[in-house]
């Protein structure tokens, strides 16, 4: 629960005024002690009241005397530098309030002219009804905005990102890569030509025919597998097509040939 705000006025009731004095005097002494302890400064207080015959001092009579002696030893300019009375205090408060008022009026005027400028740009308001003072303030505001825009452009240009770097490839690297590609293409072409050559296909068929323990291929009627000398003869036959009468453009034995006619025409040695 918040305390009720105290009205700063003279308390007409004697008992209430006396109770308030005692309570606030105790609070003032406590604040003086806190100020001296926390800030490490020498302080003193002298309070006169109609309820006591002697003034009340803080922290003690000797402490007050030392503080007053030190104060009197200071130059007069230093003694009065922070010293104010009621009249000076009020004047200072009034001057500060006037400065705050001028600042707020200047901000309000700038906001008002900003709205006029925006409405004029969109065509909602003309400038023919403005006074000379309004036109001067509007011109000042426009110049201020132009300066801010120019400063922003300069700031963006100063922090502009550098252009991306272009990676260049040397001619020697390109020539090496081209040679490697040509070699790979030539090797692939040679492999394809070899696989499509009918002579190579027939040689592969005969090589499969000469493999031992082949139960699927027969040599004549109930004949055994080929002897080593016959195997050597067929290997010689594969090396040179001219020994068996095959021309350059003639095919080798067709795939799936059972070999019966071959063995009857060329007897083994």
TrEMBL record:
Among the entry's GO cellular component annotations, what is one?
Answer: nucleus
Q: Where is the MADS-box domain?
A: 1-48
Swiss-Prot/TrEMBL GO biological process terms: positive regulation of transcription by RNA polymerase II
Among its keywords, does the record have Coiled coil? yes
Q: Carries keyword Nucleus?
A: yes
Alphabetized UniProt keyword annotations:
Coiled coil, DNA-binding, Nucleus, Transcription, Transcription regulation
Coiled-coil region list: 87-114
Q: Where in the cell is it found?
A: Nucleus
Which protein are we looking at? MADS-box domain-containing protein
